[in-house]
Amino acid sequence: MSLNIALHAGLSGVLTHQKQVEVTGNNIANVNTPGYSRQTLSVSPGKAIDMNGLLLGQGVDAETVNREYDKFVSGQLVEQGDVLGREEAKSSPLAEIERIMGIGEDSLASEIEGFFGAWHDLSANPGGSVERDQVIYKGENLLDSFSQLESGLVDVRRNINDSLNAEVNGINLKLQKVAELNASIKDKQSLGHVANTDLDERDVVVKELSELLGVQTFETGQGQVGLQLPGGVPLVQGNRAMGFEGYYEGGNLQIQIRSGDVVLETDRTNFGGKFRGLMELRDQFIPELEQDLDDLRHGIVTNVNAQHEAGYDLDGNTGRSFFTRPASVQSETGFADPAALTLDTGEIEINDSTITIDAQNNSLYGIRDAINDSDAGVIASVVHDGTDYHLDLTPKTRGADVESDFSQLSDFIDEDTDGNFFDAAGSEQISVAVDSTDQVAAAGFPEGAPGDNVNAMAIHELNSSKLINGDQTFVDAYGRIAATVGTETRRNTMARQGAADTMDQLENLRESMVGVSLEQEMINLTLFQRGFEASSRFVQTIDEMMGTLIGLKR
């Protein structure tokens, strides 16, 4: 009877070591499989039985094949995937924006200097047709540079939308894969099995989704996990996955998440990972750049126009804008003589500023100067429509609504201005307004033309005046815009490298804890092989002993 027990023990050793060799072989085969976790065979001693007062073991029991897993490290990999995905997504668009902004001879700063430099050259020879032609040419180049920057940023935004749209189908497949793996894991565990391969595969997909969306995970029981966006929007619940749908609104790709008839709208705050990074650039960084560039262009145009309108061309005409004007509000009533008004003393209210009109400033020019000396947020100028002179108000900030009240100066401002609210027009409508070199207003006095260079010098000096936000020249303002791009690009480079280094460290830590080590597996293989051979030799010995006993009976 005891030999039968020994035979059973030996056979269990043979079979168990065989399984251990098989598990080791599977580990070796998957040494380079992404996301694979080292597997081990869980074994325990066989239950001992009482044989005439002696407790004899019954060999070894092979219980289950487990995978090595560290929950903390796996969670850190998912969290770091969010950071890495966000910073890597920003890298290429930021590099393109930095290229668009540029430095050197072809930069916007160079074009600004060139335009105002042309006015300086004109001041040296106010009547020169070549110098006048250069002023017009440089003005056109300046506007073209603004347009090229604007077009380049539009292209970057379009590329971002295309990149987001290209990910939608792949994300849906990944979400569905997680749901399917959840169902498979649940089924296997209900039968008492450990779904090692499914668990590894799900971890890989979840990590990919973390880099794309910054998904957050939570356990839901029976081996299943749920996924949601950082903003709390659910993506996977058990074996059910939501679906991403992309649609365009306002020129930008928007994402909604559908589950049957339920549709959830999202914005950039709902996302992490690549989607958050790209949406931050598209919805925040690029629009702020565009606004800053529009404000700079608006500042150049309105200030140059105001000064140009104060000068005189070769024919003695004044009040002509150099650039076509951004949208503005203009006095309904025109005045043949802007210096001889009969307006009552009163007050003008523009935004939060109150401007007093009295005998000292009740000419059209006096009203203009009083407004420009205030903090009303507009630039006032006197323009000539070919017949009469009008007061014109242009917002300093492109796109700004400006509330004004000229009720004490009745019929002064056109009532068809949307209740005294007005808005600056799109800067793409701006162009050089002078039709010929004779219309360039270089003179400061009508009797001074063509040798008068007062207005040409005044326009040239605008370039050194701090007219942007009260503390920046035009070139300074562009330098600040370009510096913003450079700073963000450098920040992204450092953050991306830091995130990549951290991810590498976590991956190495994971490999050291749950990955396959060929050296260790070769040691295990030798160990299990020797165990198999020893168990086989033991079985052979027991068989020979049983044969001897049978021979004695004969």
TrEMBL record:
Biological process annotations from GO: bacterial-type flagellum assembly
Pfam families tied to this protein: Flg_bb_rod, Flg_bbr_C, FlgK_D1
Domain Flagellar basal-body/hook protein C-terminal: 514-552
Location within or outside the cell: Bacterial flagellum; Secreted
Coiled coil region boundaries: none
Ranges for domain Flagellar basal body rod protein N-terminal: 10-36
A single MF term (Gene Ontology): structural molecule activity
Annotated InterPro entries: Flag_bb_rod_N (IPR001444), Flagellar_basal_body_rod_CS (IPR019776), Flg_bb/hook_C_dom (IPR010930), FlgK (IPR002371), FlgK_helical (IPR053927)
Keyword Protein transport: no
One Gene Ontology cellular component: bacterial-type flagellum hook
Record key words, sorted: Bacterial flagellum, Cell projection, Cilium, Flagellum, Secreted
Record flagged with keyword Secreted: yes
Domain Flagellar hook-associated protein FlgK helical: 94-323
Family per record: Belongs to the flagella basal body rod proteins family.
NCBIfam families: flgK_ends (TIGR02492)
PANTHER family membership: FLAGELLAR HOOK-ASSOCIATED PROTEIN 1
Name of the protein in question: Flagellar hook-associated protein 1
Organism: Desulfosalsimonas propionicica
